[in-house]
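Worked Example 4.2. Consider the chain below.
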Amino acid sequence: MAEEKKQMGTEDNLKEFCRVGKEYNYKKQGIFYLNAYFNEEEAEKVWGYVNLAGELDKKQGAEGNAMDEFESHRFLEKQGQTLTVIAMRKELKKIDIDTDNKMSLLEYCVYHYKLKIDDLMSKPQGTNEALERAEAALEEVLAEIEKLEKKKAKLSKKAAKGGVKGKAAQNELEQIKASDPMPIRKALVTAQAAIRKAQKSKDLNAMGKLWFIQREIDEAAKYKPKANWKRSGLE
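Applying the procedure from the previous section yields the following structure tokens:
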């Protein structure tokens, strides 16, 4: 098995591959793959992989970088690979390039798409100023949503205690749920304008990141205060 892994790439490329898998969270790993091999149909699948990994990783969630054996087993089952525990462990050994007994999303991509690490690591990872501005604008949207969600959670706790203060908190909570918060709408308009500008770039090496930012903006645009907010596993 060790010899097979050596054949997958040069020592330097393997080292860099392992670094990315250990230092990048699931979202960044997904973007790394898509920047290298962008395909819009596959981008939607990778979005799903990123979300699933974040949900299954019980210790670090979306900020995690690799799933343990049990979580990896469940991840593969969700992809239609229903195997016995012994068979699954053998499969995971094929996937686990850095031999840490875990499965990063990038390791899964190499396994699933039958990639050569030398080829993957030779692909440029681009970005540009317009894209960075769009990402910053997206973060502003998400920050406004999180701020409102924290306020809702605080009011819910007060409302649960009952009494005059509880009733007042419940009334305020209902008003928030029925509202269309201007700070969020304003931040969304800015983010949508920024991503449109970024889409005019001819930088094909950043297509994965561009797609992900657009997808997150689209998800944020669906936000309604009356619903329970979930950032699709992308913290």
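The radius of gyration is 21 Å. The mean pLDDT is 92. Compare this with Example 4.1 before moving on.
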